[in-house]
Amino acid sequence: MLVEIWSDVVCPWCYIGKRRFEKALERFEHADQVQVRWRSFELDPRAPFRRSGDMAGHLAAKYGLSLGQAQRQLEHMDAMAAGEGLDMALADTKPGNTFAAHRLIHFGYSIDPGTGAATKEALLHAYFVDRVAISEPDELARVAASVGLDGAEVAELLASDRFADQVRSDEREAAELGATGVPFFVFDRSFAVPGAQDPDTLLAILRRAWQRSHPNLEVITGPAAAVCDGDACEVPA
Amino acid sequence: MLVEIWSDVVCPWCYIGKRRFEKALERFEHADQVQVRWRSFELDPRAPFRRSGDMAGHLAAKYGLSLGQAQRQLEHMDAMAAGEGLDMALADTKPGNTFAAHRLIHFGYSIDPGTGAATKEALLHAYFVDRVAISEPDELARVAASVGLDGAEVAELLASDRFADQVRSDEREAAELGATGVPFFVFDRSFAVPGAQDPDTLLAILRRAWQRSHPNLEVITGPAAAVCDGDACEVPA
User: Fold this and answer.
1) Hey, are the CB atoms on B221 and A11 less than 8 Å from each other?
2) pLDDT value at position B90?
3) Residue among B76, B190, B228 whose CB faces A8 most closely
4) Which of A227, A229, A235 to mutate to test binding with chain B, by most B CBs within 10 Å of its CB?
5) Is the predicted pLDDT of residue A115 greater than 90, yes or no?
6) SS3 of A3, please?
7) Distance from B146 to chain A by nearest Cα, in Å?
8) CB A35 within 8 A of CB A2
9) Res B216 pLDDT > 80
10) DSSP string, A55-72
11) What is the CATH number of domain A2-50+94-213?
12) Nearest Cβ partner for A182 among B11, B224, B228
């Protein structure tokens, strides 16, 4: 079974949803037969290299909130993250454009699925826990090195548009599948699940998708079901 | 999509069913993505090498029919076969044990799928249209040569029990899938269809099986579907 998860590296619900999905997968009886593929989705493809100002101020301005309301929203999300064992401090994150980070994830996948997945996790951790400026080539190179990606190749990638097509292809597919936000989970291209659902819900969907791709045999008989049996053949009336 | 068809080479409904399935497949819009695999099923594994007496007499004795009734049953089946373009004359067939014929089909598949399928068709044609004694090594060798199987290898196969395990494995699977007679069609291990159904029915099942293995995306939303969207993230109440 293939589970594809569209997500961005600066999306808190994506990291929270990742932990919840991992919990669901731990409890899933066919986990050893599940392949997970992290797919690219930029929340804001036009995001500047580095956004000025702080998160609370940005949120307040965008939604017409007071700074205090915005701060409380961020703290609420921090608390949700803490519930999943993630030490987020959203007010201190350093958002920016994530296109290069996504190209790096695709580079990881070009090595092997494990490296792709490790690159994704390392980038989320760098952004949310280490509060790293996610657009900075030096920071990206450091994260890439931590998962064993080749330094020279990473430098070349960061200086070029290598894997840009793969990022755009993921994003095109997301749109085709109806994703307008992330995380967006797709099970065997059969079920789509938007949002950071809780582990119980995700586990139930894993089981439902498994059932759909491994259905019980359904026997269909009809009026003209003429068979031979033993050494004789029935002749329908 | 994989369609597996259990059948015997001495089973008239199998040959009729084969033609009906071929007609259905011709009309199926995804025919180029269908892989067909003919699987072994001996109607009578204890059948003697060559059965003495004629078909009508055998049928009459077995079912307590008069010879005339038995002959009419055979003629009725001949007429059904003629409806599918098959020049059968069941009363003149020369039944016998089909184990070696099935081993030959597996040998064909060991070369390539096309040769496996051609061996199956050639054996049915030899038995029903050419009225060949299906157990005779010389006849089997002739049929094998007609589909390009290597003569020396075929001679060795006929003198050994090569591919016996594969025939038995097919038959074990048939039992596990609930087949008690043949033909027995299994679509993607998802739908089982016993009997020589008409082309319209088989086409409908091809479409249903295709639909099941290529379902439309179903979107599942739940109360905790927290997503990030644009550069902001909703916080569920």
Assistant:
1) no
2) 92
3) B228
4) A227
5) yes
6) strand
7) 27
8) yes
9) no
10) HHHHHHHHHT--HHHHHH
11) 3.40.30.10
12) B228
What does the pLDDT look like over B166-205, one tens digit per residue? 999 999 999 999 898 999 999 988 889 999 999 999 999 9
- Is this complex's ipTM strictly greater than 0.85? no
Mean pLDDT, all residues of chain A: 91
Q: Which of B186, B198, B212 sits opposite A215 (nearest CB)?
A: B212
Over the stretch A19-70, which tens digit does the pLDDT of each residue have?
Answer: 999 999 999 999 999 999 999 999 989 888 887 778 888 888 888 889 999 9
| Residues A75/A89, Cβ–Cβ less than 8 Å | no
Distance CA B178, CA A218 (A): 11
For A120, which DSSP code?
H
**Domain map of chain B by residue range?**
2-50+94-213
**Among A71-75, A162-166, A209-213, which is the least confidently predicted range?**
A209-213
String of DSSP letters for chain B:
-EEEEEE-TT-HHHHHHHHHHHHHHHH-TTGGG-EEEEEE--S-TT--SS--S-HHHHHHHHHT--HHHHHHHHHHHHHHHHHTT----GGG------HHHHHHHHHHHHH-HHHHHHHHHHHHHHHHTS---TT-HHHHHHHHHHTT--HHHHHHHHTS-TTHHHHHHHHHHHHHTT--SB-EEEETTTEEEES---HHHHHHHHHHHHHHHSPPPEE---TT---EETTEE----
For B42, the closest chain A residue by CA position comes to A230
A to B CB pairs, distance under 8 Å: 165
- Joined together, the tokens standing for residue A108 give 């990881």
